[in-house]
Write a structure and sequence with these properties.
alpha/beta; 2-enoyl-CoA Hydratase, Chain A, domain 1; 3 domains; seven-stranded mixed sheet; 17% strand
Length: 516
């Protein structure tokens, strides 16, 4: 065989590999409004930056006639490329090849790029579209999943891991995305569940649809597994590209900084009148965030899960930060099981990857009731406390209104190593609200008064003036300054600049025992 023939053979094999399961299956996928694995990679990465590995690798199974069904690449496309010039490693499961089912060799391909990502300190992005384990391979497939799970765990906190789910994801296949830092699903196309509707029906006698059991909307709002529900495949990929822009390459590097044209000294007069006179009236904390961050650009994560707490990324003077904020527009911003877990996981992610945390506080306490107590609000509420206390990244806190009881403590207070803690003049820092406190302190005495209501109202005002304000905390140094709301952006940016070279550490240990 001469050189020309060898090159022609290489070209033909490449073309065959690029077709995956063939044109017929690609057309069927397109008819469903779905993209192929290679098309997704093309949208995700910078143009012409993709370098593929293991294009010619095939499975080794010889049972059930599988030796007659070998396709180059075997159901997953792997390699590396760049997003905005920064290296990422990527794998994309190919549904046109045996439904993207995982074989021993597919697992080897995925593990190879995960190992390289760890060695070279770059994010891993998995584009999942798989029917699960390849039944024909049995234990080899299960072993392959386990190998991937191990690498997900080893890579956790070392390099960012992002998963997108574009199709069905069932059984053991759901655990790799669940172990990664962020999960994106596509509305009406993505499904994640351990057991499908038929098994559920046979075991629990529940009638449930695929969408109800494991659809994108369910996981975004009820389970909290998904961080974003995309309207389409391209929307999911655009979300990942933007998410990556806020993250460092690994746990050693600082997060990326951009040049910002938004003036550091820009004020927001609207914030001076944002807090309602009625302390029980709601307002939207996202307004505070948008008025203070660069260009009003806030990249929210888990928007529809536990909306009483807000988490996401933004920039202050070009610096990437993580934002955690109570949301008084939902359940008064109260902390409960779901919001505590949501906040804790986000804080821990930021701490893993050197991303400063800015916290906006307006929290009346933890949600009472048997449902919360039986569900373990003590254990789960302790997670956000643990996360803030453990975090060594720069932490800037702004209390806008209520900061009551234990909820004040856990929301990045000075006592949990908060670095710079500000309060607005409208802040109320106390064990509980004035009405509840007065009921405890003066309830018995009020019953003896001629006008109990007037007496209690007077005592409430007295409590408000003497205790439920930011000045008592400021007198003790728990609040570093009481600031004009309009100047919040400037003060936050200055605080972050001051903390840019912060060094903090935790006691030497294998790892802590977070109350899981």
């Amino acid at each position: 065989m001469n050189t020309s023939d060898r090159l022609e053979r290489l070209k033909n094999l490449r073309e065959q590999a690029k077709l995956g399961g063939g044109t017929e299956k690609i057309e069927k996928l397109h008819a469903q409004g779905r993209l192929t694995a290679r098309e997704r990679i093309g949208l995700l990465l910078d143009q012409d930056s993709f370098e593929e590995f293991d294009m010619f690798k095939t499975h080794r199974c010889t049972d059930f006639g599988m030796e007659q069904n070998k396709i180059p690449g075997d159901g997953v496309v792997t390699g590396h490329g760049t997003i905005d010039g920064r290296i990422v490693y990527v794998f994309a499961q190919d549904f046109t090849v045996l439904g993207g089912s995982l074989s021993e060799t597919i697992a080897e391909k995925i593990c190879k790029i995960m190992d390289l990502a760890m060695k070279n300190g770059a994010p891993v992005i998995g584009l999942n579209d798989s029917g699960g384990a390849r039944i024909q391979e049995g234990i080899e497939s299960l072993a392959g999943y386990s190998d991937i799970f191990l690498r997900n765990v080893m890579a956790s906190g070392v390099v960012p891991q992002i998963s997108a789910v574009f199709g069905p994801c069932a059984g053991g296949a759901v655990y790799s995305p669940a172990l990664t830092d962020f999960v994106v699903m596509v509305k009406n196309n993505s499904y994640m569940f351990l057991t499908g509707p038929k098994v559920v029906k046979s075991v629990t006698h529940e009638d449930v649809t695929v969408e109800e059991l494991g659809g994108a909307d369910m996981h975004a709002s009820k389970s909290g597994v998904s961080d974003y529900t995309a309207a389409s495949g391209p929307d999911a990929i655009a979300y990942i590209r933007k998410l990556i822009s806020y993250l460092p390459q690994n746990n050693i590097e600082p997060p990326p900084a951009l040049n910002s044209e938004d003036p550091v000294t820009r004020t927001a007069a609207q914030l001076n009148s944002l807090i309602p006179e009625n302390i029980n009236e709601a307002y939207d904390m996202k307004e505070v965030i948008r008025h203070t961050v660069d260009d009003g650009d806030f990249f929210e994560v888990k928007e529809h899960f536990a909306p009483n707490i807000i988490v996401g990324f933004a920039r202050y003077n070009g610096m990437s930060v993580g934002i955690v904020a109570n949301q008084p527009a939902h359940y008064s911003g109260v902390l409960d099981i779901d919001s505590s877990v949501k906040g804790a996981r986000f804080v821990r992610f930021c701490d893993c990857f050197n991303i400063p945390i800015v916290t906006f506080v307006d929290v009346p306490g933890f949600l009472p009731g048997t449902a919360q107590e039986y569900g373990g609000v003590i254990r789960n509420g302790a997670k956000i406390l643990y996360a803030y206390a453990e975090a060594t990244v720069p932490k800037v806190t702004v209390i806008t209104r209520k900061a009551y009881g234990g909820a004040y403590c856990v929301m990045s207070s000075k006592h949990l190593r908060g670095d710079i803690n500000y309060a607005w003049p409208s802040a109320e820092i106390a064990v509980m609200g004035a009405k509840g406190a007065v009921g405890v302190l003066y309830g018995r005495q009020a019953r003896k008064e001629e006008n109990p209501e007037a007496f209690l109202a007077e005592k409430e005002q007295e409590y408000q003036d003497t205790v439920a304000n930011p000045y008592v905390a400021a007198q003790r140094g728990y609040i570093d300054d009481i600031i004009e709301p309009a100047n919040s952006r400037l003060r936050i940016i200055r605080a972050l600049g001051l903390l840019e070279n912060k060094r903090d550490s935790n006691p030497m240990k294998k790892h802590g025992n977070i109350p899981l």
